[in-house]
C-alpha cells in the first residue's frame, strides 16, 4: 500500500478472477464480527475494488491457451465483465491431432462418477483431506496413454521451461495418492520426469501443454466444498496450453450446483459437443472413460499377489546437529494455583504465598525459585511477585495457566538418505545387508550443504521425535526451536525393500504394483516417501536384462510343465491369464505332490510350501540332506536380506531335523576375480557356495534340487520391458518322476564343468560334502590323493597329466525326449 500512497499516477496490473490471498476462516469471522462487514466483502481484494471503482480496462487477448480452451475460460469466467477473450497463438502441434482418446480433443470431461467402479470421495482422516481412488486410477490411465515410446519422445522435444504434463488436484491428499500410485507404475518410467502433480493453490502463474484436472468430490449430498469459488476453478482450467482433460463426477454439477463455476463449465462443454458437426469436435461431452478407455483397466479384479521382494542399499549419511527444543509441560498443582493467585491479585509477596499454602520457608523459596526460573513471575524491587508477560499472555490467550515451556539444547544424531534427503530411523543393521545391490549416490549428494541438511531436519523434526521417542505425550508437546550447527559424521547404507505384487484389471491387463518399505523390526514396516520410492524404481529400471537363448516354451518342454505350457503365446508367457485362472483354482497339477510357485522360493508363502512338502515325506530311510541351488542369470537374483536369511535357516533345519542340512548355491565362475565378486554379493546371506568353472549354462532357469526328495523349477519372466525386475514362476514337486527329471536337468547343466571348488562354506572343507555327485548322476571316476594346492583350495579338477589329484568326470545325462 505504501507505493499507492506515494505516487501521483498509479497503474495496477493483475487479474481479480485469479486466486486471491488466503485467510484463515477463524480470522475472517473475527474480523467480520469486529468490523461489522460481511465475510464476502472482506474476501474482495483491493485490486478488485479499484477495478470496479475506476472502471478498469480489461485486456482481451491471451497467448497461452489454444482457442477451444480459451473459449471455455472466457465464457465461464470473463463474460460477466463484458470481456470476450481472443487467442493470439497458433493451433496445437500437429501430432496432437493423432493422439488417442481423450488427448486428440483440446477439451474433454471424463465422468468419474458413472459406472460400477465409481468409489466417490472419502475423508479417512476426518480433517477435510479428501481422496477419490477411482478418479486417481482414471488419471493414471490417461497418463498411460502418453507413455508410449513415440509419444514420450515427442513430449520430451517440447521446448518449455515447464513440465510437459501437469496434474492439478483440489486436495493435497489426492495429490499424495496420485504421486504414490505413479511412483509404483512400471509403465511410467519413461515419462515420470515429465509430470508435475500439485494442488491448484500451488499452480497460479504456472502452465503446461497437457493438463489433467482431478476434481475429487463425488458424494450423494452433492457437497462440493470450496469448489464454489470461481477464482479457484478459473486458475485450474487456464493452466492448459494444448490439451485439457477434466476428470470429475458430472452429476455433482448438473442439478444442485449447476449455477456454480463447474456447473457452468459442464454446461458449456455439453452444449458445444451437442452442436458440433465435426467428426472430431474440439469439445467432447462428459462420458464414462470406459467408452473408449476401459475405466477398469487399472482396477484389479483378482487377488493381489506378492511376486518378489528386492532389497537394495540406499546411500545415507549421519549428521550431528546442535538443536534447541521447547517442551510444554504441565505445571505442578501448587505452582499452577500460585500463578492463578498472583494473576487474580495482580501481585503477591512470598510470605503471602507461604501463609496461603501453609508452606515452610524452604518450600516457599523453592516455589518462588521455580516460578522465576520458568519466567512466570517477575520479582519487583520491593520483593513482590508480579505476573510476567509470558504468564499474562497465557492467561489472556487461553483463560487459564495450563503449562510452562522448558528450553533445552542438546546434540542429536540424525540419518538422512542422500537421494531425497529424507530422515531415516537410526537403528542397527545385521550383516545380511552386505552385498545387496547399491543405488548409486548422485554427484550432488556427495557434498550436501549443512544449511540444507539443517533445513531438512527442521521440516522433519516431528518425524525425528517419533523415531527417537515414539508417539509419546512428551514428543507431541516438544517443538524444535532452532538448529545451531550441523556437521557430517559417517556415510551409511540403508537397506530397503521394494515389494512387487500383481493383480489383473477388468479387461485382463496385468497390473504391477510396487511398494518401497523399510523394515523396522520383525513385523513393522515404514513406507518410504514418494520421491524416494521413485528413485528406487528408477534404479531398478536402469539395469539391463541379459538376452537369453532359452524361451519360456523351452522351459515348459524341459521340465514337462503342462500347466504353464497352456499359457504360452508366441514364446511369451501370458501372466495375466495365468493369474486369473489361479484365482479361479484352474492352475493345479492334479496332485498335492506338485504345486505352482509364483515368486522367489524364499518368500514367506513359498518357504512354508517347500518346508511342508519336505515334512510330508517318509523319513524312515536315509536320504540326501543337501539342497543344490542353481541361480538364474538375472540382475536381482537372491537380492534380498530378511526373507532369504530366514529361508536359509528354516529350510536347512527342515532338510535334516537332527543335524541340519545344507543349502548350497552352485555358481558359475572363472578365476579368483569372479569368486571374490560372488563372495562380496552373497557371502553374508548364503552359507555355502560352490563355484563351477567351464562351460556352465546359465539363463533364466532357476533350479533347486534335493535329490530324490524335492525339486523346484522356475523361469524368470519379465513383466515390464522397461525394468530389469523379473518374477520367477514354475512349480515345486515331490513327485518322484518330476524330481528325477529336474535332477537330470541340473546335472546336464553342470556337465560341462572343468572343476568345482568351494567358494565359501560355514562348516565344510570338501566339495564332496557340499555336492551330492552320486545322487545327481555325476559319477566320481577316480579318488586320488589331492595335491597341496587342490587340498588347500577345496577344488576338484579334472585329472592332470602332470600331477595326480582328485578327478571328477561329468557324464552328460540323456533325456528320454
TrEMBL record:
Pfam families: AAA_12. GO terms for molecular function: 5'-3' DNA helicase activity; ATP binding; hydrolase activity. Keywords: ATP-binding, Helicase, Hydrolase, Nucleotide-binding. Residues 43-250 form the DNA2/NAM7 helicase-like C-terminal domain. This is DNA2/NAM7 helicase-like C-terminal domain-containing protein. It comes from Rhodanobacter denitrificans.
